[in-house]
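Fold description:
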Amino acid sequence: MAGLPGVGKSSIARLLARRFGAIWLRINSMDQAIWASGTAPSDLFDWSYRTAQAIAVARDNLNLTRIVAETQVANTRSRAFLERLGMKAIRELTRFGEPQLLYELPIGPLA
């Protein structure tokens, strides 16, 4: 989810995660944690997104039924990344005056 500071991105993400039974992963928080490790370069490239992917791989320990993500329709790089992770677009909506896509990765129940 992208937008200017203070427009409610975090609030919306928390509500979406709760509504869809998903976990809310904040890339900025992951960036901060990686930088705090003292091992990361100043430019993290896609490290935090890879961290989010690792969390998806560890889903069995999180007891979730799906992971959701939202990006702007025009953001083809983010869409391609989500699709490489196996996420499928499930809904188009308008937020912040721009068309957005909601993606889902079903992760199934725990065995």
User: Anything to note?
Assistant: Residues 9-106 form one domain. The radius of gyration is 14 Å.
